[in-house]
Every structure is written in structure tokens, then in C-alpha cells.
């Protein structure tokens, strides 16, 4: 049998207008920072299926990886006021973020220093941090405030009883925590994402929609279902009239950041032979786009589907909110800029309502809490609304139950329908192999290479 490496074609891209050509045709100059095509050949090796199913591999992730990475614990708009708190828990560790009187943020191990009860069970406002068991109480800054029956605890002096802190830092309104004192600073860890996000000012957005649901598959398998666009050809056929699925550009940077940039307002290359009109593309976009309430639109003479949809989005998502949209490119107002930050979030970029995904094991290798948020831009010059609470969908509640996001709910239901079948079959794989495309699935290779670095101690 021929050696599998001898069969590898050179890295290639799907025919059709790729991102570079669409940037050239953009109605606005595209900044150089977005033109770099940062992709490296990551080879063609398969992954082992047991990475998704083996409790020992899951334990290695829990011990070697999770405590050493920056985890997105909260959006700034979840706890904007002094005394607001957020509880973020993952794999048995719980952290308590507390907004200080000067509006800075401290993060504490969410564990009472008396006999170890979870100090705060839920997010919400607080004047002080009182343990519900015996009432040991701390100030918002973590200093000890009082101990009931103090006479019995002369040995627990205030200097020994401050709440231990966890490292925390934020970028763009995303608050991260890290249990590892040796980890690199957040901005180094996120590079080059902060520079690429600078124009989009995500700190001016708020969580207007937030939905979570437990999915019966490994947290990596769930997140990887959102790392490539090419499953659209079979899983989401209704979006092909307006989605350049196979013309997505994949970019990989360093160890922690990558991007899938999927063009909208163009025909899928799978439909290239069908010769759909631009009007049909616009109609399909309106029916299948990410939010309900999109105004019906007609293309003006001379407009393409892409330029018309971009103009429409620019008007709705920037101009109507009081922002100057003159430099916002067609791509930034229309396309899916799906970034991933290792290990478990996907914050979308661009100027439209930005989706954000977060995935956590729930609680083991066979299930995941998947959260989807929509971040909306606040009106220019106006206050930023508070985040809504997360709506937790039950096992039998489809994503389409949430009517606010229009056709997007059905798209998520299509995605999730695959995943339990993936997890079950990975457990009984005939060859223990998961195979990946060289280009379109390169973000999955990138992710696993970084995971291996954490597991081996190289990171
Ligand atoms: S465990 Fe918290 S006060 Fe006793
Ligand atoms: Fe999908």
C-alpha cells in the first residue's frame, strides 16, 4: 500500500472568490492587519479518537492544562457596579470575581477559609462576602470582616485570613482568570487578537442574549464543530446561497489564537454551477441570517448581494446607533470573523452583533456546557446595558426555542444533532483515528498541538 504521506497533494484552496479577492473588491480599504494570510501547514496526521473519550486523557487535561490557561470567566457587563459578583466554575475549581468600590476587579478562590464551603453559590450583588454556613465574612477587597463567636478563634487573625486571590485581567470587556502564577500576562497570551480587535471595541458591547445547554459530547468535539465552516455543505444546506463556506480563510497565530473568516453575501462554491441571482442570495440571507428583525431589502441598481447586504448591515448596526460607519469594511459588517482563544472560547470579531461561544466539560469527558451569547453594540455616547442572565435550556428544549435569534436557532440545532452520534462512535472506533483536512480543519490541528504542549509541559 502506498505510504499515506506520498499521497498528500500540495496544500490547496477551494476555487472561487477567496477572502483576498473579496478584500480587493471591498467598498472600503481593508487594513493591512487583516490581509495577512497567517497559515502554516500542520501536516496530515490523524488524531487519536481516545483523546475525546478516555477518562485518563480527560484527567490529564484537568491537571496539566486547565489550571494553567487563561479562562474567560465573565463579560464586564455582567458585573458593572461596585459589589457585583460573578461565580465562574470549571472542573471543580470555583472563582469569585468581585467589582470593587473603585470599579476595579479582584478575583478570589471561591472557598470559605473556615471549613471550606463554597463561599458564594451564585453571581449577584453583595455588600460583603458572608459564608452561608457559619457566617465568616469578608470585605469586598478580600480582607477579613468578622467571625461569629470570635472568642473561639483567637488564632485566626485578620492578617492570616485574607481571601487568596486568583490572577485576573481583561481585554475588550472579556474578563479572564488564571490559577497559574507563572503563566504569561493575558495580553501576551492573546496576541495578536488584541491588535486585531482594536477597531471593533468589544468593550462597547453588551450581552443581549445568552443561552446555555448541555451537549452529550466531549468539550473538544463540541468546540471543533464550530472551528470549520465546511460542514455547511451537508449540515446547513439552507445557508449555502449566501455563504462562502469552502472559501473560508483559516489563520493560525502562535499557540492560542486562530480565526475562520467566512464570507457572507456570496454563493457557496458548491452552488457555483446553479447561477443563482444576487436577489436570491439576499433573500436567502434574510431568511437564514443570524437575527430576526432584519428589514426586508431590495438591491439598488449596481449593488451586488454582498455590497447591498454590507450597506444594510452598516446602516443597521453602526449608523442607526450613532457610529461613524465610513471606514467599516464590507467584510467587517457582514462576514463571520470566528476567532478561537485556546482552550474554550470563540469570540467573534467585526462590527455586527458578535456571537461568543464558551465550552466547559459538564462534568466529564462525555458532556459539555455550551454557551452562546450575542453581544450587541451600545448606542454611541449612551450607557452600556447590563448583561441579561443566561437562559439554561433543558435537555429536550431545542435551540430554536429561543425566538430572539431567528433562524440561527435552527442552525445550532443542526450542529448539535451530529454531536451525540460523534461521541458514541468515537468510543467504538474501529481504528481509533479521527482524520482531518489539511486546510479547512487546520484550526483543529492547531488546537490539539497546543493541548499537547500543555500536557507535555512544553507550555
Ligand atoms: S464553612 Fe464558611 S463559615 Fe464555616
Ligand atoms: Fe455549523
Keywords:
459 residues, alpha+beta, Naphthalene 1,2-dioxygenase Alpha Subunit, Chain A, domain 1, Rieske Iron-sulfur Protein, 7-stranded antiparallel sheet, 5-stranded mixed sheet, 12 helices, globular, disordered N terminus, binds FE2/S2 (inorganic) cluster, binds fe (ii) ion
| Tally of strands | 20
Please tell me what the overall shape is.
globular
CATH C-level of the largest domain: Alpha Beta
Low-confidence stretches: 1-10
Strand content: 15-25%
Q: Helix/strand/pairing class, anyone?
A: alpha+beta
Can you tell me the number of structural domains?
2
Q: CA-to-CA gap between the ends?
A: 38 Å
- What's the rounded overall pLDDT mean? 94
| Bound ligands, each once | FE2/S2 (inorganic) cluster, fe (ii) ion
Assembly type: single chain
Fraction of residues in helices? Answer: 10-25%
Query: Which architecture of the largest domain does the CATH hierarchy give at level 2?
Result: Alpha-Beta Complex
Overall radius of gyration: 24 Å
Instruction: Tell me the major beta sheet.
Output: 7 strands, antiparallel
